[in-house]
Amino acid sequence: xxxxxxxxxxxxxxxxxxxxxxxxxxxxxxxxxxxxxxxxxxxxxxxxxxxxxxxxxxxxxxxxxxxxxxxxxxxxxxxxxxxxxxxxxxxxxxxxxxxxxxxxxxxxxxxxxxxxxxxxxxxxxxxxxxxxxxxxxxxxxxxxxxxxxxxxxxxxxxxxxxxxxxxxxxxxxxxxxxxxxxxxxxxxxxxxxxxxxxxxxxxxxxxxxxxxxxxxxxxxxxxxxxxxxxxxxxxxxxxxxxxxxxxxxxxxxxxxxxxxxxxxxxxxxxxxxxxxxxxxxxxxxxxxxxxxxxxxxxxxxxxxxxxxxxxxxxxxxxxxxxxxxxxxxxxxxxxxxxxxxxxxxx
Length: 346
Ligand code: AMP
Ligand code: MG
What we know:
Blueprint: H1 7-33, E1 35-44, E2 47-56, H2 63-78, H3 86-92, E3 100-101, H4 104-119, H5 129-135, H6 137-142, H7 154-161, E4 170-172, E5 175-177, H8 190-203, E6 209-214, E7 217-221, E8 230-235, E9 243-249, E10 254-259, E11 264-267, E12 270-273, E13 288-295, H9 298-309, H10 313-322, E14 326-331, E15 336-337, E16 343-344
Antiparallel strand pairs: 1-2, 2-6, 3-5, 4-5, 6-7, 7-10, 8-9, 9-16, 10-13, 11-12, 13-14, 14-15
Helix pairs in contact: 2-8, 4-9, 8-9, 9-10
The site of magnesium ion (MG) has 6 residues, from strand 10 and helix 9.
């Protein structure tokens, strides 16, 4: 007997198949559009490194590679403490008439640093290694010697200063020449260089947006979903661990802050901080509590935040302007200066 053709059943099956297909399509589409969040905190290059990124449909978390980039940068290039780094090799060559061959990356970094030294009349100086070691700034950061800190004697400071001075450092034919006793300290630009590497890694791949923090420096990665500027919090220099407000920053900008509150020790009621004036050898006292710089280049923003901290506020504003960067200064008196608006949130 010929099976009876059930028209209704066929229609039900077809409709079910179509509904199923539509359902699968919606699920797949939603998966593609789902926002993935990547949040990571790590200790990199002697500081807190924080990733807060999101992406549409991207599943691969970039955090681990970003941490690796920082660790590699410290180990192979920037650290003056690790023998494996290029800076350590450069410092070991001080006094060698043959000098030391530079990698193209290091040559570019040092050349840019020397330009900023010249532009800031030596307020920013990467050859202060002898002085920063004498003050044992890294020791305070680790808390090693905070308890029994005694400021160095004037004679020791003068001796250390005799081994400093960017004008005595020469770069010629891709080689660096330094006098004996001189030592390079890239502590003022390390985080900015790191953020530049993070930007190169992130901007070449899938679309990610968010912020990355490395110590006192921030990278705004990509554009905010609604096209607004990013709000970047500014630490209150007068109140431990609190924000004083925020500034508004566009995509792919580096924001660096240098402040006397970041690293300091106290001795007989006096505070000694980590930004040293190459003119005196003592912590800078120019009336600034913190200086924030915004620039496309992390190296520039980091170098300038240190350099401008060393200058009085008018000179700092004009240096930032000359170098094409934005600036926001909070003075010791609590005044706000510069062309970037600080939006108070208290
Ligand atoms: P930052 O916190 O970016 O302002 O960098 C401060 C660090 O840079 C210090 O811990 C020192 O290692 C180094 N430093 C201190 N004073 C100077 C200076 N005048 N120029 C360049 N580097 C400096
Ligand atoms: Mg800096």
